Amino acid sequence: MQSLFFFIVALALLIVIHEYGHFWVARKCGVKVLRFSVGFGKPIWRKTGKDGTEYVLAPIPLGGYVKMLDEREADIAESERAQAFNRQSLSKRVAIVAAGPAANLLFAVLAYWFLFVTGIPGIKPIIGEVTPASYAATSGLVVGDEITQVDGRQTPTWNSAFKALLPKAEKGESAEVVVKSGGTELLYILNVPQISIEQSGQLLQLLGITPLRPQLAPVIGKTVAAGPADQAGLKSGDRLITADGVEIADWAGWVEKIKKSAGQHIAITFERSGKLESLTLTPEVAEDGTGRIGAGVDADYSSIPADMVSEIRYGPLAASKEAVVQTWVFASTTLKSLIGMLTGQVSTKNLGGPISIAQIAGSSAEQGLVTFVSFLAMISITLGVLNLLPIPMLDGGHLALFLIEAVRGKPISEQAQINGQRIGLFLLLLLMFTAFFNDLTRLFG
């Protein structure tokens, strides 16, 4: 229920932002807006404002729309024709349509700016292990080195170091890495292998770097609904004791056990409310072939050493630049992932629908404001990028038609537009079906 609540909150907020972009620019361009709707379906609430616009709240929270005066949809009085969308210049129509995705991207910039100004906590990027003969070992990196810069960018946390290295992996380029070692700063050239988008999460592992992590107690935090841990009966607060008769010393050891046991039965003993209990757990096989159970750690049962804690924080002006960069990087990565799915380089199993978004929304809200705002920024960027795709019925489809109009000197025929909308509807339904199918597959196996 909590996941559903935060899903509705997140989606409603982002829909309002997107549609308000269209609404605001349309009004500035002199176009009359007939209806501003959040959600689809029969209205459950409506009110007509002093501006003559009908504001509507509908029950299906999967989108919204701004209905403008348009001669192609109804007869319009002579006195109102100048306010019709179809009567506007090409530049104004482009601005109105592009304003929705632009509003989503602008919101993401503001969200990231807020996070960078207030500070994003994390763990210092100190190397815990270096795999022999790996890229990291060859470059000279050793255990205990703290990565402070990558190509001149400050990297106070592992998250910032990872994001700085990831662009290098797109083309397999080298990076200048500054580390703090024994109180001395040293510069190394780290060769970064070229990897696919699907391998991005394994970048540090492929480099041969294992981060130094604080020792966390093996206590179960939030579990994914219908995931292996949930189905086996594990609950938040359960303290893991043994796996197949071997003591579980910390969370890192537990994670390694799970990764190596994909599809295998594990006999677990754990403590719940002061009593020892047992069960059998079977990790599912993840995309990379390792095991996973859909459960996180409850860090409240552990204390993180103060000398391992850091944060990413900038002044207001520097935060503005970083926010734009972060938005651009995530938007370009999203677009590359979509292109990869079309070309077959990225599996469509990575697509997530409303169920996945709801689960992530609930989980991120539980982890605090920073995580939830970051989630909102990423979903807003995704929404903006998706709407810019040149698919009829999406904003990008309309912009593509405007481009054709600019080249031809006149719009394409109404019948061609109708045919395009049919194709667009089919593609959108196919996309939604794939996302829902992936959600149900993850939920029910």
UniProtKB/TrEMBL annotation:
Name the InterPro entries on file: PDZ (IPR001478), PDZ_6 (IPR041489), PDZ_sf (IPR036034), Pept_M50_Zn (IPR004387), Peptidase_M50 (IPR008915)
Q: Name one Pfam family in it.
A: PDZ_6
Q: How does it sit in the membrane?
A: Multi-pass membrane protein
Keyword Protease assigned: yes
Q: What is its EC number?
A: 3.4.24.-
User: From what superkingdom does this record's organism come?
Assistant: Bacteria
**Subcellular location, in the record's words?**
Membrane
The molecular function terms in GO held by this entry are: metal ion binding; metalloendopeptidase activity
Q: What is its main location?
A: membrane
What keywords were assigned to this record? Hydrolase, Membrane, Metal-binding, Metalloprotease, Protease, Transmembrane, Transmembrane helix, Zinc
Q: Where are the transmembrane segments?
A: 6-25, 94-115, 369-389, 423-444
Q: Which cofactor does it need?
A: Zn(2+)
**NCBIfam families noted in UniProt:** RIP metalloprotease RseP
What is this protein called in UniProt? Zinc metalloprotease
Q: Which organism is it from?
A: Methylophaga thiooxydans DMS010
Gene transcribed to yield this protein? rseP
